[in-house]
Design brief:
By secondary structure, the protein is an alpha+beta fold. The protein folds into 2 domains: 106 residues, Roll (Membrane-bound Lytic Murein Transglycosylase D, Chain A), CATH 3.10.350.10; 118 residues, Distorted Sandwich (Glucose Permease (Domain IIA)), CATH 2.70.70.10. It is built from 9 helices and 19 strands. α4 crosses α5. It is elongated, with a radius of gyration of 28 Å. The structure holds zinc ion. Zinc ion (ZN) binds next to β11.
Length: 308
C-alpha cells in the first residue's frame, strides 16, 4: 500500500516542480528583456512621441549603472571587509540594509550595491516625492536623486504624481542612516570578559556578566561615551567606584574606577574625561567594566552593539 502513495507523491511533486520551472523560465524571459531592451522600449514609447534611437542611446549611455545584488555572508567575512571588497563605505551597506547590529552572521543575506549612499527598493506605486522627502531627512539631496537616476526609465505618471514600479531601485547618493554610536570609553588594550554568562573571576560563581571588561592601564582616562547627564557617581558595592551617564535612550555605566571627576546632575559631553581606570570593588586587576542599559526597562544590552 505504500508504493502507490509514494508514486502519487512523486508525480505530484514532479508536477509541482515542472510548474515552478515553467514560472521560472517565464519570469527569466521577462527579466532578460530588462537592462537594455526594456529600457529602450520604455524610452522609445515614453511621453507623447517616439524618441529617435540615436537620442535614446545617448540617454542610455549617460545612465550611472547602479548594480544591486544579494550577498550571502561567508563565515570569514565582516561588514568592513565586505565594504572594502565592494569599494563603498560600510555605512552605505549598513544603511541600505538597515543593520541595527553591524555584526554579520554567516549566511545572513544582505544587499550589496556598487555605489556610495543608499539604495531604495520601491514598492508598487510609491511616489517619488514621498521617497525624496524621506531620504532628505537622512542627508539625501533632491537634485542628486533627480539627476543621477534616469526617471524616464523608472517612473510613470499617474494623477499628476511620478510613481515607481515594484522593485525599482533608486540610488540616493548622499543619504545614510545614523545609528546609536558611542565613543570608546577607554583606550583599551584588550577585552577580558564580554557580555554574557561567565564564571566571576573573584567569586567563581557562574552568572550573567552585564557588561564588557576593557583592560587598560591603571589611571587611564575614562570618557563619556556620548553626551548625557550623570545619574550616579560614587561607591556601588562590587562595581567599586562607579559612574552612570544617562543618554536619550540608554545609560552607560563605568565601574571599578580609581578616580571620579563628575557628580550627579552634571551634564557631560561625548568623549569628556569623567574618571580614571582602577580596580576598586570586585576586581582582579585594572580594567573598566562598561555597561549599556536601556532606559525603557533598565535591562543591560550588548555594549558592542553601540561601540563599533
Ligand atoms: Zn565586568
Amino acid at each position: 500500500m505504500k508504493l502507490p502513495s509514494k508514486k502519487l507523491l512523486l508525480s505530484l511533486s514532479l508536477l509541482f516542480f515542472l510548474g515552478l520551472a515553467f514560472t521560472k523560465v517565464f519570469s527569466l524571459n521577462l527579466s532578460k528583456q530588462t537592462p537594455k531592451a526594456l529600457e529602450q522600449e520604455l524610452l522609445l514609447t515614453s511621453s507623447n512621441g517616439i524618441l529617435p534611437e540615436r537620442e535614446a542611446n545617448a540617454i542610455l549611455g549617460r545612465i550611472e549603472n547602479l548594480e544591486v545584488k544579494t550577498h550571502d555572508v561567508k563565515p570569514y567575512e565582516w561588514l568592513e571587509k565586505i565594504a572594502k571588497d565592494v569599494g563603498i563605505p560600510a555605512i552605505a551597506i549598513r544603511s541600505t540594509n538597515n543593520l541595527e547590529d553591524p555584526h554579520l552572521r554567516p549566511h545572513q543575506k544582505i544587499m550589496l550595491q556598487n555605489k556610495k549612499g543608499m539604495v531604495h527598493i520601491a514598492k508598487e506605486g510609491e511616489s517619488l516625492e514621498s521617497i525624496i522627502k524621506a531620504y532628505e531627512r537622512m542627508g539625501g539631496k533632491r537634485e542628486t536623486i533627480l539627476s543621477l537616476n534616469d526617471l524616464s526609465l523608472i517612473t510613470y505618471l499617474e494623477a499628476g504624481q511620478l510613481l515607481l514600479r515594484e522593485g525599482t531601485k533608486l540610488w540616493i547618493p548622499t543619504a545614510y542612516r545614523s545609528y546609536p554610536f558611542l565613543a570608546r570609553p577607554v583606550n583599551w588594550l584588550r577585552i577580558s570578559s564580554r557580555f554574557g554568562v561567565r564564571r566571576h573571576p573573584v567569586t567563581r560563581v557562574r552568572r550573567f556578566h552585564e557588561g564588557t571588561d576593557l583592560v587598560a592601564k591603571y589611571g587611564a582616562p575614562v570618557y563619556a561615551g556620548q553626551n548625557g547627564e550623570i545619574t550616579f557617581a560614587g561607591w556601588q558595592g562590587g562595581y567599586g567606584y562607579m559612574i552612570d551617564v544617562r543618554h536619550s535612550k540608554i545609560t552607560t555605566r563605568y565601574g571599578h574606577l580609581s578616580q571620579i571627576y563628575v557628580k550627579v546632575g552634571d551634564q557631560v559631553k561625548k568623549k569628556q574625561l569623567i574618571g580614571r581606570v582602577g580596580s576598586t570593588g570586585l576586581s582582579t586587576g585594572p580594567h573598566l567594566h562598561f555597561e549599556v542599559r536601556r532606559n525603557s526597562d533598565g535591562r543591560s544590552v550588548k555594549p558592542s552593539k553601540y561601540l563599533y
